[in-house]
Every structure is written in C-alpha cells, then in structure tokens.
Amino acid sequence: MTRLSIRARLTLWYSVVLFVVLVVAGLLVITVHGQIELARLDNELAAALQTVAGVLRTEIDERMELKQAAGDMFEELNLAGLGVAVLDEGGASLAATNAGLSEAQLKDVGTRPAFFDGHDGRWRARATVAQYRGFTFRLAVWASMQPLDREDTTLREAVLLGVPLALVLAGMGGWVITTRALRPLADMALQADAIDQGLKRARLTVPNPTDELGSVAKAFNALLDRVAGAMGEQRAFMADASHQLRTPVSVVRTAAQVTLSRPNRTDDEYRESLDIVSHQAQRLTRMVDDMFMLAMVDADGRPLQRAALYINEIIDSVARDAALLGIEREITITSATPEDVPFTGDEHLIRQMLWNLVDNALRYAPVHSTIALAVERRPGVVHITVADEGPGVAPADRDRIFNRFVRLESSGGTAGAGLGLPIARWIAEAHGGQLALDDERHGCRFRITLPAAD
Fold first, then answer.
1. Last residue of one domain, picked from the residues 239, 263, 298
2. Contact status, residue 331 vs residue 293, Cβ threshold 8 Å
3. pLDDT of residue 408
4. pTM above the 0.90 mark?
5. What CA–CA distance (Å, rounded) separates 412 from 173?
C-alpha cells in the first residue's frame, strides 16, 4: 500500500469507501423497499377483509342463511388478485374463490398476516372471526407474493449491476480529479528538484495561495527564506571571522619576521616581541573561545548547567576582579548589592555575561570615570545593570551592537572582536530573560532582566 503513489492511494481509498457506502445503501434500499411493500400488502388484506365482511352481512340480511349468502356474495364481489374464503365454525369451507391455498392451510390462517407455501409459490394470508345474526364464521383473504418477489428481484439486479458500474465510473472520475488536484504538487516537486545552491532567488510558484497546496508552497518558500538567511549569516560569520583572525595572525607574523630579520637582538627587543606575540595570542584565544561558544549556541550544543546561586555574590566577584583592569586608566568599578538575590541558573554563563558587559564598558569608558554594577529584585524579576560614563551608543547603532562582529570606535584600549554582546544577550535569553540597552543621555547602561527564583 505504501509503495503506491498518493494519487493511486487516494483513488483506491475513495473507491473502497464509495463501494462500502453503495453496498450499505443498496442493502438498506432493498430491505426498506421489501418492508414497505409487505406493509402495503397487509393493509390491502385488512381492507379486503372489511369489504368481504360488509358484503357478507348484506347477503345474510337478505337470505338469512350463511352458506347461500356466502355463495351469493362471490357473485357480487370482485377483488382482483386476491383469494377469499368463508369458513364455518368447524373450519369447513362454505365458499372460496381464486384457489391458491388448500382447505387445510385455510384452517391455519390466523388473524395476523403470515406466509404460506402454495402450489403457485408463496402467499400472504390473514383471517378474521365474525358473528352476525347468530352465525359465527371465519373470513380469510390471501394474495400471491409473486409480484413483490419480482420487484425485489428486479431491485436486487439493479443494485448488483449499478454498484459495480457506479464504482468504475467513480474510480475513473476520482483518478482524473486526484490527477488534476495533485498536478501543482508534482510541479512544485520539479521546481524543488531544480533548486541549486543559489537559494537567494529560488522560490516555488504558489498556484493558489488559499488552498492547502498553496499553504505548502508558502511554508516551503518560508523555509527557503530561513535557509538562505542562515547561509547568508554563515557566510558573513566566516568572512568576519576570517577578517578578525587575520589581524592578530598578521601582527604575530610581522613581529616574528622583524625580530628574526637581524641576527642579533637585545633582551629588551626579544621581550617586546614576545610581549606582542603573547598579547595577540591571548586575543586569538578569546576570539576562538567566543566563536566556539557561538557555534555551540547555533547547534544547540550548550545546555545550561542550572544550580542554586546568589547573583549578588557573582556581581561582587566580577567587580572586584575587574577593578584591577581599571587601575591603569584610573577607572573605578563599583557594585551595589544591598541584599542576597537568589537565582537558579548556570553560574559560569552568568559570570561570563557580566564579564562581557564589564569588558565592553572598560573599552569605551573614559579615563577617571566609574563603571557601576547594580542588582535590584522586584516582584517576579531580577534587574541587573552595568553602566559606564562613556560616549554612549548612537541611535543608528543601538540595534547593531548586538550583531556579531559589530565593533564601534573604542575610546580606550583595543577594540574587541564584536562577539561579547551577542554572547551576553544569548546567555540572558537562555535563562528566560533579556538584555537591552537603556536610553541614556550620557554614558551607556545595559539592563539584564531575569526571572526571579521561586
């Protein structure tokens, strides 16, 4: 079944369902038709009994003798297709017409309609017991079942012939309809097969945006848009990463070549060259670590190691360690943590998020300024802020700074690789929070919003 095409399966299922429906409907028609015709015949027999009884009473009034009245009744009574018999109290036949049932069978006819087998086929008969002017007698009427049997046979033959014919015609129509209905799907499959690596412009033609196939085509085009966007981001990431890595590698190579260009160098010159190499190696290490982190984030390969912690302790620790980095430019780093702030999260990532924000502030904060870290617990959330007194961020760059490899002009120290803020935002979002840049006239203040611990 699964090896068949969708068109064949739809036609087959449609034919099977239609076959079942037609068979059930045919059986119901045959059954209901037989019951209706039998009820009609029983009503005719009941009406005939009333007619016979009325005529016989009239004849009894005239003759005052039951047997002669019964004989005279048949001279005046004409019930086409029906048999009639008048029986005395003992069951002996006084008069009868349209023989079809034997005298013994007539004795067995009851007041409820019943079938009897005669020499000419089946019969339907019923009787009634009456008393009039001192006479007690039984009246019986019967009718042949041959007309009803012929109608049932004709109806069965029509159903047996009509069901296969209707099934064949419906199957052919279903095949044509499914072919026409699935033709857009086959066209989309051909278009999808023809798509190569150029995903920027390759899109499926949407035949009818309002039907199901149109929805499939739009969903596939949306997938192509996401794939093209992801590939574009990947290419941009690789290009930016190559560009960022090229600079420190070039510096290391140049320092080594300059140092080795002369056979003799002083200890200070070697120390200076090694210091340059060490500094660039640290920069390369951090860039590689950041890119590895982002690669794991993109591949969902960095699960959170959640544990109970106090955010205020992490903030105080980061501020204390970062204060050593601000001594050279006389930058003061303060932390305002008035109370214990419990939280459940990845301590290493929370610390890295704060370090990235503090490191960013150190790069742009002016000399003799202050970088302030603070935490505030509100109902349901925890707010962490990292504020500096630098030049701030221009409105045009407020959204760009969270993109990868975006670097603004630094007022102090060496500019970073442009990966710290994207990683910090991911860490905040991975913990169910967000990282945003507040509107400030002077300086720059980043606000981290995290869900409070239960």
1. 298
2. no
3. 65
4. no
5. 78
